[in-house]
Fold this sequence. Notes:
It is built from ten helices and 17 strands. By secondary structure, it is of the alpha+beta class. Strands 13-8-3-4-5-14-17 form a seven-stranded mixed beta sheet, sandwiched between helices. Strands 1-2 form a two-stranded antiparallel sheet. The N and C termini lie far apart (70 Å).
Amino acid sequence: xxxxxxxxxxxxxxxxxxxxxxxxxxxxxxxxxxxxxxxxxxxxxxxxxxxxxxxxxxxxxxxxxxxxxxxxxxxxxxxxxxxxxxxxxxxxxxxxxxxxxxxxxxxxxxxxxxxxxxxxxxxxxxxxxxxxxxxxxxxxxxxxxxxxxxxxxxxxxxxxxxxxxxxxxxxxxxxxxxxxxxxxxxxxxxxxxxxxxxxxxxxxxxxxxxxxxxxxxxxxxxxxxxxxxxxxxxxxxxxxxxxxxxxxxxxxxxxxxxxxxxxxxxxxxxxxxxxxxxxxxxxxxxxxxxxxxxxxxxxxxxxxxxxxxxxxxxxxxxxxxxxxxxxxxxxxxxxxxxxxxxxxxxxxxxxxxxxxxxxxxxxxxxxxxxxxxxxxxxxxxxxxxxxxxx
Length: 390
């Protein structure tokens, strides 16, 4: 081989290496762009700021005694461990933030679209990437709340049930210009009435929920007691879940989650059992690697402003959660009394929950500060024990 040929081959090799490097660089840049790009419009809310304890609270390491003051009187006192997120030397896992606050909405819409549908499942989810820990707070759908943006569309009326905020925000009604549609209007409603601060949202309709459960070949639950959702009008065996183990398809999981014959608070407990089982299935080694593909396959059937990178962070943190570090909580049931409110839109009296919103705001503050629910520590008198995913 002549020196000219060697020089020419060397030039080609250098050019090929340069081309490969350029392609790799552009590929990485493109991946980074799409990995960080939200899958939907972001929430139109102020950025989440670190939560501080109200001035009425006192603390003494290593435990903290929290006292909620209502009308000048202590309403509840409990001793809880200081959250790990208060320790600045700890590094968040999986490349995530210290804390991510999510709004999760389950719609009663049975189609694959999000034109209509009430927000019948409303959860605040606090993901602590330092501990790591996930806390989930259920919001009752039948709260009579002020909803932004709707007054011009329904003859000046600015109050409706909380679950209506999601319906009015989606494109079927389109009572808001919020680009995040139903989840966006729901998030702003929660912020207005209860001081909720959120970073991101996820909205799922019933059809998609069923498909997600079926995509992981169902979930397994072990019921501590029989759940009988049969009524005098419907005696179908599909509504009866006997005490003990069950393998649930997507349809059966949805049926269990929607049973409320014993009231909305018991239905929330049923939903938490189903969510715990789904989390356990998603944490399995043979499933966790499929989560990115699973999310991608449902990309057009889920409302979310999470990016692929943030979804990967959540998927990474899931298997690292210690037993008991997924906690489901509800507001104390005794805070709520049933009532009726005349609704000019529907021209009839509607069932609502009567409750002091100031009390709920205090609970939300504690929740988003990471000090309630306290998990394995016994709940104060009058508060329901949180449900722990094992």
